[in-house]
Design goal:
about 350 residues; alpha/beta; TIM Barrel; 6-stranded parallel β-sheet; 3-stranded parallel β-sheet; 14 helices; 11 strands; globular
Length: about 350
């Protein structure tokens, strides 16, 4: 029996949820097929986390060992849930690092991600990591990840050390992402602005803070004209876009009920209309919430998301199938068709 410490050392790559080991697909139980209107779908989870142990060591950070499992365990979990493929992403914990160190960290992470995906091409793709605190470097890293390593886009935080993603300093990165036509997956970052108010019962630093950060990030990208400047940008917001789609009409109302509020940066359309050019994962927990999200942004903009391995859901597929207001084409789009198109994956 290999201990966890020996396993991580042997593998060289430790994932939150999977690790680089020889292909064991043949040993895993048969995956549960997902069929919609007689068609066997390729289901694709766009919100699945991992970490690279060597990179964590390089950053002097500890891997979140509470969620460590082998690749075989991750594969069995995917099969049981009816998920054919995961698009792996690493939540950025490197935005405070200096340039030389973060360059090494990103290179290591992306190479390891590419290696893992190459070993399991029928089950995994990945979003590349980028050092967004240095937007010029991030643009170069994104291009290398996509063109030379076969990664399918980039995973970023919802802010960078307190700086909004709408800040013009990040324009070089957005321009490169738009030029390459790849998907950018945005996951919230913990920031210190609300730290004191989020203490106490209820795990508010996650429960409220994560969707709130996404709401703030998207609102700035809309109101500051970033989405007008880069209309071809393909951006997916985790956790169903946070709170913004649930209260979106207030974003329109403020512009005409409070004169001058939205005049500093003239927008080309109403704030709510930008929601239909963004993408979202399906992690909103109830059929009514998913129905509302689809009504607000369009089912074509939603993709399957589990937040694996953080135990928010084990029934993501059922969640989509059990929302009665969705038709079969919309269910197929959410479960995998839209992600396959955006990530360059052949559909089943």
């Amino acid at each position: 029996m290999i201990t966890r410490r020996q396993f991580l050392s042997h593998a060289g790559v430790a994932f939150v949820g999977c690790a680089l080991v020889p292909n064991v697909s043949a040993q895993a139980p048969r995956r549960r097929p997902v069929v919609v209107n007689g068609r066997r779908l390729r289901t694709i989870d766009v919100h699945a986390h991992c970490v690279i142990a060597e990179a964590q060591t390089l950053m002097k950070q500890k891997p979140p060992g509470d969620y460590a499992m082998t690749w075989e365990q991750r594969l069995q979990q995917m099969d049981a849930q009816g998920i054919d493929m995961e698009a792996l992403s690493i939540n950025p914990t490197w935005y405070a690092l200096e340039r030389d160190l973060v360059t090494k960290v990103i290179a290591l992470q992306n190479e390891k991600l590419a290696e893992l995906c190459e070993r399991h091409p029928d089950r995994l793709v990945a979003f590349g990591s980028v050092a967004l605190q240095y937007p010029d470097l991030a643009a170069v890293q994104l291009e290398h990840a996509v063109k030379h390593l076969g990664l399918r886009g980039a995973a970023i935080g919802g802010s960078v050390e307190g700086q909004e993603l709408s800040n013009p300093k990040f324009h070089p990165f957005w321009a490169k992402a738009e030029e390459l036509g790849v998907l950018v997956f945005m996951h919230p970052q913990r920031t210190g602005d609300l730290q004191n108010r989020l203490k106490g019962n209820g795990y508010l630093e996650n429960t409220i803070h994560n969707p709130l950060e996404t709401t703030i990030a998207l609102s700035h990208l809309i109101y500051e004209g970033t989405l007008d400047r880069f209309p071809g940008l393909k951006l997916c917001a985790a956790h169903g876009g946070g709170y913004l789609p649930s209260y979106a009409d207030r974003s329109d109302a403020v512009c005409h009920l409070r004169p001058g509020t939205c005049d500093a940066v003239p927008l080309k359309k109403k704030p709510t209309q930008y929601l239909r050019q963004l993408y979202y994962d399906s992690l909103v927990f109830t059929p009514e919430a998913l129905r509302h999200l689809a009504a607000q942004v369009g089912a074509s903009q939603i993709m399957l998301g589990t937040d694996t391995p953080f135990h928010w859901t084990t029934t993501a597929v059922e969640h989509v199938l059990s929302t009665p207001e969705l038709n079969d084409a919309e269910r197929a789009a959410i479960l995998g068709d839209t992600a396959a198109q955006l990530l360059g994956i052949k559909t089943a």
